[in-house]
Amino acid sequence: TLLYTIKFEKLRMATTRITTALPPNIDITKAELAYGEHMLPKLNRQLQDDTLLTRQRALNALCDVLHNPEHVSAALKVGMAKSLKKLLADGDGTVRWKATEVLFICSNHAIGRDSILEFGLIQPISALFDDKHDDARHMSHRAIESVSHTVNGAQGIVSANLIAKLVEKLKTETDDIKELVLDTLHYCMKVDTDQALKAGGIEVFTTLLKHESWQIRGKAARDIMDISFPLDGKKTAVKVGCVPVLVSLLADPSSHVKAQAAGALMSIGITTEGKQESIKAGAVDALMSLLQTDDTDDVRLNVIKAITMLAEAPQGRKQLAEIVPILEKIHVEGGPMIEKVTTTAIKVITWKP
């Protein structure tokens, strides 16, 4: 019986019948790649094809191919940026989504970011902020956020007058996109804060300080620190009632949120008005408590900086006198940066007129 079975299997395997199934290593959702230097020119031609499926398959293939920086450079040389720019306005949502994903992948490389600026792609990408296709909208924000990491990229976004639009999106978008927008604004406000202030950025950031997501609370506090570096930002932060909310975040479960909240209070507390509002909101007690309960480096660093700011006010200096021994202990235990800020803090707290 065993011998019969073996003979039967050999006969079955030797049949001339051809299967209709595709080979296991063939992906029908991606275009077949040409060999060597012909690969990218062929894909570029397929991007311009009138057949929807051909364009989709070419974009899917590009999402794999362009992870190699050498291919990014070669793709730009064959004019692929112009083809992608046209596809951003394609009638098919999948094409718009994948075209933006290709640009996002390019933006992870220096030459790709430069090309996005050179070919004026920021505006066409930002047009997808209002796209009805969720994936296209999400990917457009990822691409813009990636571009904003460099000074030139952030300047390009500011020059395109997108800050007000980004601030507005924080009111309506999904949480994952809100995180991307907050990151984009963080980098852009290193270049320019005026547009964010005029767009009501501090009011929107203050609202997000109460968000259920700790990532969004932390990023909102960080952005308040960024936007309050200029004097107008500090005044606006006090005016809209931002300080009491930041003080409440010093007791947040997340160390990241506490560190960013302390940093924001430090920035606002540079002005006399900011110091008075922080002391009134109970920041001194909250900061002293946090200094003794959380030994995370980022938290300690920003808390000590905030304490130094508040110690410049007579009332704050009087309250903070009791933590000098704690600061001296931290000074001995901490690294070079901690040593530097604790030295300054102790000097300010113990200062006598």
Word description of this protein:
Helices cover 70% and strands 0% of the residues. The chain has 353 residues and is mostly helical.
N→C terminal distance: 107 Å
From the spread of the alpha carbons, the general shape counts as: elongated
Quote the average pLDDT.
87
| Helix fraction bin | 55-70%
Secondary-structure blueprint:
Elements lengths: L1 H12 L25 H9 L4 H14 L3 H9 L2 H8 L5 H15 L2 H9 L3 H5 L7 H14 L3 H9 L3 H7 L5 H14 L5 H5 L2 H8 L5 H14 L3 H9 L2 H7 L6 H14 L3 H9 L2 H11 L3 H14 L3 H7 L3 H10 L2 H14 L4
In short:
With 353 residues, this protein is mainly alpha-helical. The protein is built from 24 helices and no strands. It starts with a helix and ends with a helix.
What keywords describe this structure?
353 residues, mainly alpha, 70% helix
